[in-house]
Amino acid sequence: MQKSIERIAGDSDGVSYEFPVLRLAGADKTAPSAYLQAALHAGELPGVVAIDALMPMLNKAEAEGRIRGNITIVPWANPIGRAQYHFGEHQGRFHLGTRTNFNRGFPLLAAPDARLLPDATFGGADQRLKSRLVQLSLGHDIVLDLHCDDEGLAYLYVHTSLWPGMADCAAAMGVDAVVLWSEDTDGTFEGASIMPYQNASADVAKFDRRVATTVEYRGILDVNGALAKSDAEGLYRLLVARGVISDTALPAPGPFKGVAAPLENIDMMPAPRGGAVLYDVKPGDRVTRGARLATIVHAPGEADGRTEVFAPQDGIILTRRSRRIIRSGEDLLKLVGDRKSADARSGTLED
Asked: Which cofactor does it need (predicted)?
């Protein structure tokens, strides 16, 4: 394993940011290659500890000559967000200087060619970081962007062009659900990883071996050794299943048994009032239309001081908020419905 340090110039003299890049060289130039990154939203740590648990497996495979394809790993993908604190609270989702989500504004290239990247020299540090992450990932057959939600099941975002071809990956990783999407107008990292191949020739697109996904590893507090080990084993199974690593002792993944639904089926449930949230459901619960999902206490102790929120359709609770105070209009949860939502959203579901 080789380690290098990437440096991103800051927006003023004397300021710069660094992040490590780990590389394992494959012995077979024809084998699929893989790129993994974690903590693009810098406070989301389940992917970071999963990579930490994965590295001993990869180092062992390398020592035994079983690494077939090149592997590039960025365990801490966002040194800018990692350094952001406001009144003692970490702020890793948005760049404080631009108020832009760190997983928005990636360049969506017309083809998988780094020469098409815009010149970020005179952009902000966050744009320089995004450009460099795209450069590092471009050309890999497998691109995994490891995130987490507030509280939730383990699930993947997958472009419709890669499904059901990626069902083996979902099964290998042991996720509970897959959300299928087709449009990216906001420039997510996943979009930057798959959109350049949409109009490419078949010999360049290679959809039969391509993997690009945002991995949501449950909730932001699900950071512990047991889950990290389980997630690392899932990542390893994926790399073996897709031929990046050779391991004859590992069986092929079985069929994916989780939920797969289009993004348009998700109800986000905007809160009708602001206040304290009392949830009746948790991630993984199956609900029917009309079931009470939550109660918002907006005027404690007063008559009519509670507002109930009900399920608009049958479905599975995918996520809910980790904090229990909410403003009017903020989304309460993600309900993966059995049919298209009456409030269907295109593009990204939230800021």
From this structure: Zn(2+)
